Amino acid sequence: MDAIKTCLALAVDRLADFNSSLCVLNSVGGRGVVHTFGRQALPMVWDFMETNPFNEVGANWNAGIEAFCSTIENEKCIANTGATQRASAISHPLSDDCAQLLFTDPPYYDMISYADLSDFFYVWLKRTLSHDSSLSWKFNEYEAPKEEEIIVEPTPVGLVGIKNNDFYLSKMSLAMSETRRVVGPEGLGVVVFAHKSTSGWEAQLESLLKSGWIVTGSWPIDTERAARVSAIGQARLGSSIHLVCRPRENPDGSLRTDDIGDWRDVLSELPKRIHEWMPRLAEEGIVGADAIFACLGPALEIYSRYPSVEKASGEKVEMKEYLEEVWAAVSREALNMIFEGADASGFEEDARLTAMWLWTLRTTVNGGNGVDENGAPTKSLPGYSLEYDAARKIAQGLGAHLENLSRLVEIKGNTAMLLSTAARTRYLFGKDAAESPRKKRKKKAHQQLKFDFMEEFSRLEEKSLPAGRAGGDWAGKFTGKAGSTVLDQLHQSMILFAAGRGEAMKRFLVEEGVGRNPLFWRLAQALSALYPAGTDEKRWVDGVLARKKGMGF
């Protein structure tokens, strides 16, 4: 009877998910509503859609009952094959070395407030079940318990207060220690993680190593929708990384603590391991952010096989410092792949960073089917953004510094944006020329279709034209200076192509000698493969490449 009551109460919860004031009209097909939790957050909506819970079709009461009946029907085949038990992750009732496999998907640092979100459903379960004496003990809390939840939370929680990185690390280390305790010395652990920030990864990985696990491998498995709201224009993982671990234990189950790793040996082995692993990932079609995090397993096996790694001075090497070396090794190896084995050191830091930045984004920017997780059409976002800390570490690994690249990268809060080619027009063609007074021009039709850079370019054009002449082709000699780097020169050529200034582009590449540099065409070819399909940059750089042979190169 308790099971039936619980299923009926869960059906009420499901109905609440489709009947809140946060539900909007399902724009795909124009029928029904989009439920409240399209993602792990409560969205802000301008209007809401009401549904009739007693309708014959749609998200009604009967649909909820049918869903649970279907679940029970599908799950009954695995009855009596295991046991389910509720327990604290840091104090588990299982005995030592009793399991051969651990599989866990721990909380994602500061990404999701699980307990807060569960209150949406908890309050309805409390109302429907708490009056029953046999079930009331399950709902003796006013709301879902939150103090022991292992997440990062800037809002004070009960007696715990603010849950910072130290709270997460200490609690997660205790939880991971419990998992190692119940797994036998020859057992296996799999930890699923898919967080966007390097700080989240560092905390999770450090907790694993502190608790006595050796990370032996990592592999991305597709679990995420490419069109989800949180991934649009972001370097979010298109998959969940599965970290494969082994207990760092002796055959008798005791923790190994006597081995000390030499920092020089670890550093010399790291690039070799990354060099072996990256081509394999590429063969499997794993690129971008997924490939970066998929390299963590092989890289961490070198470091985590020791309880401690020390420098010659005796100073202990912390996880954070080692991960800096991992990001650098991955970045260098990725650049060698991007430029097909060519020496990427011939390019300036802005070209190396642009190529690596676009490569990092490849798993998400090209994805999607034009609708978000709620079925609503998505819009393209300007620029190419990364979480600032990830961008900083990638740049550092390439020998670049974001602070010195303000003409290429814009930093706002925790986000770093790689500027689009069009956004760099004023810088590339001269600020004075771009800001010169503009002569009155005849208004053209379809002004709304003009790109932002067209206005800037028109000002430059008019300044270069003879007095009294406005509009028409840019017939005068190109007076703009070639950029100081290969990337600047390529972007200048792309803008000339986009503006329809073919003759000016030819003079720029041939007479100015820009096109005689083989690095120019090598970079153009690489960026053609990296720019997302359908973007202006992809179209423009392909246009420049298409004219290479006609200009005698």
Explain this structure.
With 553 residues, the chain is α+β, with helices and mostly antiparallel strands. It folds into 3 domains: 1-78 and 133-140, no CATH class; 151-349, no CATH class; 420-551, no CATH class. The chain has helices spanning 2-17, 61-75, 114-129, 165-182, 198-210, 263-283, 288-294, 296-304, 319-338, 349-365, 388-397, 425-429, 431-434, 452-464, 486-498, 502-511, 518-530, 536-546; strands at residues 24-25, 33-34, 99-104, 153-157, 161-163, 183-193, 213-222, 239-247, 260-262, 308-310, 384-387, 409-412, 415-418. It has a 4-stranded mixed β-sheet with strand order 3-6-8-7. Helix 6 (263-283) crosses helix 9 and helix 9 packs across helix 11. Mean pLDDT is 77; it is low at 226-237, 364-381, 432-457 and 460-478.
Structural class: alpha+beta
**Percentage of β-strand residues:** 5-15%
Please tell me how large the radius of gyration is.
29 Å
How many DSSP-defined strands? 13
> In total, how many domains does the architecture comprise?
3
Regions with little confidence, pLDDT below 50 for 5+ residues: 226-237, 364-381, 432-457, 460-478
Overall pLDDT level: 77
SS element count, helices: 18
* Main beta-sheet strand count, sense and barrel state: 4 strands, mixed
